Known about the structure:
By secondary structure, the protein is mostly helical. It has three domains: 16-365, no CATH class; 371-473, no CATH class; 485-563, no CATH class. Helices cover 62% and strands 5% of the residues. It contains 24 helices and six strands. The protein has helices at 7-34, 47-61, 80-92, 96-121, 124-135, 138-142, 150-171, 183-201, 204-219, 228-243, 246-253, 256-270, 282-290, 294-298, 310-332, 345-360, 368-393, 395-398, 405-410, 423-440, 444-465, 467-484, 501-504, 519-524, and strands at 68-69, 72-73, 491-494, 531-536, 550-555, 558-563. The chain has a four-stranded mixed sheet with strand order 3-4-6-5. Pfam families: PMT_2. GO terms for molecular function: pentosyltransferase activity. This is Glycosyl transferase. InterPro entries: LipidA_mod_glycosyltrf_83, RgtA/B/C-like. It comes from Chitinophaga oryziterrae.
Amino acid sequence: MHIYLYPSHKQDMHMFSNKARNAIILSVIAALLFIPFLGRVHLFDWDEINFAECSREMLKLGDYTRIYVNFKPFWEKPPMFFWMQSLSMKVFGVTEFAARFPNALCGIATLVVVFLCGQRIYDKKFGILWALAYGGSLFPNMYFKSGIIDPWFNLFIFLSLYFFILYNWKRNGFDKEGLKKTSLPYVIWSGIFMGLAILTKGQVALMVFLMVLGVYFIYNRFRFYFNWGHALLFLVVASLITLSWYGYETAKNGPWFITEFLKYQYRLFTTHDAGQEGFWGYHYVVLLIGCFPASLFAIPAFFKTPSSSRYDRDFKVWMLILFWVVTLLFTIVQSRIIHYSSLAWFPVTFLAAYSFYKWDRKEMSYKKYAGIFAAVLGGIVSLLLLAVPLIGLNISKLAPYVKDKFAQANMEADVKWTGIEGIAGTIMVITIIVGLRFLKKKEYYKSAWTWFTGTALVIFFAAAMIVPKVERYSQGAAIDFLIQRQGEDCYVNALGYWSYAPFFYTMKEKPANPNAYEEQWLLSGDIDKPVYFVTKIDRVDNYKQYTDLKELYRKNGFVFLKREVPHPKAP
């Protein structure tokens, strides 16, 4: 029996094979960028340690529907990311590597996703440019080496929006080949990813999505571009996904936990947390610096540009709307936190790829200011990276000029610098010079490769050589002390400041005595086992009145105290 493949079938199989091969190659490159050195440095307070501790306690308690931190309910986040982290900890153990590994996988998935999306909308070259821009910009790359929630949250929202855009194109007859399915599957996939986004960080995902759709509705001159039945189907699918937690938790334990979670989501948008205020343009500055170099090369694409087709123009409109919705929404939000605007990395890196793509095809005139701005900001980044090892080598000479008592003591940490750490800054300098040269020669594709690959290498070497040494100054002594307490029958508490480190790095057990949550009881109450305190050198004097506290030692700005169990009084 002979099976004859028609030319269209052969072509489809060949295209699928090429896509699979390209995706595999890109996955390997991304893995080499994001996985090495994940466990080289301790987790950072607050978010990294906070989330890792939630996942550790999820494993410890065997409760996978409620989130706990310090063995008390933590209703700020849904469980999706903690499920990922706890699974990683099951495989790799409760380590820094395990806490960060899910985001390394997210980095691999994100680069493959933007490559495939770019290839589907434009061509292979655009897909490569978008993956380069995302993987070769500062914060987008760095966050894939972290243990925080936002990378997965952003990816799920983007995929939900992307499939809705495909639905819009299919339903409204856009001139895009390759949309062979009916509009229904695109709606379903959009709903699935929205449900996953809500399970990752809450209803803000749906809020952003609906606001983007609303602005597009206005842009579309109030013409309905969707079917109400399909809109209902989207909400049903998203709801079914979220009910895997919301519904099950409510049915199992009642509405209290979910109610508190929803109250927190409301508070997030109406108040600011202490230390999280900022000026009005905070997120624009964060994106400009944090998304370097994509942010600078994206600027020309913000303005009106020639489009080669209806879908070319339309997808750019969607990305611009996403950018402005995210940045304006989180400008209104009272809390100013860097990663709140991180969803905007998708449109920023898209627009950077768009600029290079259009320049290369001579469909858009090159704007010299983009290269000049990139060189200036890149020069500042280079100087900072080159300055770090110089400061490290001469830190004892600089310490007396630092006025902050705690920071000055931090600088006494025994950290060995060799000067080779300057390799990251050197690579940045070379990247700027070569990248500008290609821009001058109008070799835009080569220039994009240079800027983004160079920046990715800068981050790679900085993560390996600089970040671990900087961490030793900021928290190393405290983490070392906490690790030494593992397995010891005692209480450990931060004093005078808040930290999640005493929970995670002592591998804290659930307290049998409820008084253990009361700081005053630990300081002066009738304790049943020894208590260790970690405080800071500029705050220790606030606790002089507690005569039972014995100072063990001081190191790098931290003061370590111990209170023994009081001897029973003689009758």
